[in-house]
Amino acid sequence: MLVPHKVCSQMSTLLLVFSLPMFAVSSQERNVGSHTNSNIDAHKVSSRLLFEITLHGFLLWVSLGLLMPLGVLVIRMSKGEESGRKLKIYFRAHAILQMLSVLLATGGAIMSIKNFSNSFNNHHQRIGLVLYGMIWLQALAGFLRPLRRSKGRFPWFFGHWALGTTVSLLGVINIYSGLLAYSEKTSRSIRLWVILFTVEVSFFSFFYLLQDKLEYIQKQGVVLGNEPSRPIDQTASHNVKEES
């Protein structure tokens, strides 16, 4: 039996995301081990720079690791809603979450350009630069969305979905690479932060996949805790009445 392409794509994405924590932790251990015999003072940073690095990471985590995934989940909850008040609530919540995400990511970008040495010689800085451009492109696409059932709706929807999925995936990857860069810069352990972020990503991924099956589960009576009652055999009921 062939596995649908959609399931293969989702599973490969999840495997890629969940392999990143092990890579980040193992890379940190290798880096700590390689610097054991070197001058540790070279890795110390000033308290001001440490604060700026931490704030930059916090802004990008809230933007790409929290608000943007929440916005994706909210708009997916509107699936099946053609019109009405619920659809407007879902859409406005999605728009607010995504705009807040864009503003926080922009603040983090300004901080990195202003305060950090950006030679773009590592994956974290290169992915970050691509992300900044893609985030604003996605926001612009959101403002230029065509009306439903119009000719340009399908290509716009596909492009908006593809770009949003790419931004979300790259955002998760760059948070892990940012944690690794933080560890290399400060020689501090990131194991706890990797574990906490992995738990968060796992929850979002589970809820994202659950939404595809939630309607089916509800129809099976699993969510409500009872099974749908069996239809009464009308023929048998009619015969009983005649006999009586």
TrEMBL record:
The keyword Transport applies. Residues 1-26 form the signal peptide. It is found in: Membrane. It is a multi-pass membrane protein. InterPro entries: CYB561D1/2, Cyt_b561/ferric_Rdtase_TM. PANTHER family: DOMON RELATED DOMAIN-CONTAINING PROTEIN (PTHR15422:SF24), OS05G0565100 PROTEIN (PTHR15422). This is Cytochrome b561 domain-containing protein. Residues 11-218 form the Cytochrome b561 domain. Keywords: Electron transport, Heme, Iron, Membrane, Metal-binding, Signal, Transmembrane, Transmembrane helix, Transport. GO terms for cellular component: membrane. GO terms for molecular function: metal ion binding. The chain crosses the membrane at residues 58-77, 89-113, 125-144, 156-178, 190-210. The keyword Transmembrane applies. It holds the Pfam family Cytochrom_B561. Its cofactor is heme b.
